[in-house]
Structures
1.
Amino acid sequence: MGKMKIAFDLDGVIANKPPLVPKELLEWFFKGHNSSALSYRFPRYRLEQLIRKLSHFYLLRPPIKENLALIKEMACQKKYELFIVSGRYSFLESETYLWLKKRGLDKTFKKVYLNLQDEPPHLFKEKVLKDLKPDFFIDDDAALIAYLKSKLKKTKILDYSHQKKFSLGIDFK
Ligand SMILES: [Mg+2]
């Protein structure tokens, strides 16, 4: 039996938003002021990239504890292969690896896919998932989930947009 491949988005699934900042405000900032559409704006200005880098500093991104625990448990079980597929842009690469290290996740994932070519996140994720063909992908962006569902037939997309509890052990059987 092959191992079950499970891919996770990072922000909003494993890493939480900065405390005290409403999700709507972050989406307004990151998604070109239209949170229901697939319009992601790449921050062209140095200052905006710097603000984003600071906002992704690991202390400002607490883990989503129950998912972190679940992932660590799965990592011990050997029947899963775990991946991260994150739309984070290239200028967040070092912040991302620092975050994973600080949360004890630097050896958990078989591969961490980051959007290093700064593509539109939904196209980047579609491309990676088509190639990787995981059994499951978990994301928290409703518009992106709808897009991926229409494009990917081999992968079950799980919706974490309302932070509904999900148990990997039960749902994935
Ligand atoms: Mg996300």
2.
Amino acid sequence: MTAVIRPRAAFGLMALGLLGVCCSAERQFDEAPGGGSAGQAGASGTAGGSGVGSTGGGGTAGVAGFGAGAGTAGTAGSTSAGGFGGSQPSNTCGGTTPLDDEPGAPCGICDSGVVMCDGPDATACIGEKLISTPIGHEGTVSASTVFNGFPPAFAIDGDDTTSWFSTGPEGQPTQFEWRAPTTECFTSITIVSNDNNANPDFREEYGFGQVTVQILDDSDMPVWSETRNLTGTPDPTTTVEPAGVRGEAIRLLLTGHESPDCGGFSELRVVANR
Ligand SMILES: [Ca+2]
């Protein structure tokens, strides 16, 4: 290393010439210009978290060497690996697509099923009851009027040659009620005419002009209703399909009596999902 002559060195040379030896001064002069040690490499950055997708942080800068001269620069820390791509889950099934129905909620006919996950981005209605069951014979029946010898029970005996008959118009709709032992999920209600009555004389002119079918809840409040015309005679066999309405009774409001002294039908068919 070439010594640079500085004022202090000049003084040293001068002192050497004048005073002979000044070792300590010369030793300091020889060692001072040496370079510092290399800086430490920066630490590697921390990898980004899984699923977040952010890039990992850069390494920290190397530490400069010590000493009078600058040390070599520290090596920058290696760049960390980026996080895995993708977005964070945003629905309760683990996917990112908004779900149509929330898992755990009731679903299906009469809320008989439960919404469950069907993969990360879909749901399905599980456990829905879809078995159509004829239950007309399980009910108890009554009517606002009864023609002697033709009781309401004739309308649920499974025989379309027998009919219930009322005593004719009564200033308000004639009512026929069917009541279940417990709540049912109604899907179909059919009124069968007198067309096949055992007595041919009863087959025509003993029907009605219109029927309103109501489903009643356990407080006898209507929760569903549909009105149908019964044009012609015998009345057309008429079916209404509530598509799954929970209730405990069915009420028919019958108007437009075809005869002033009698009117009825042969069967009330009731279907429920169980
Ligand atoms: Ca019958």
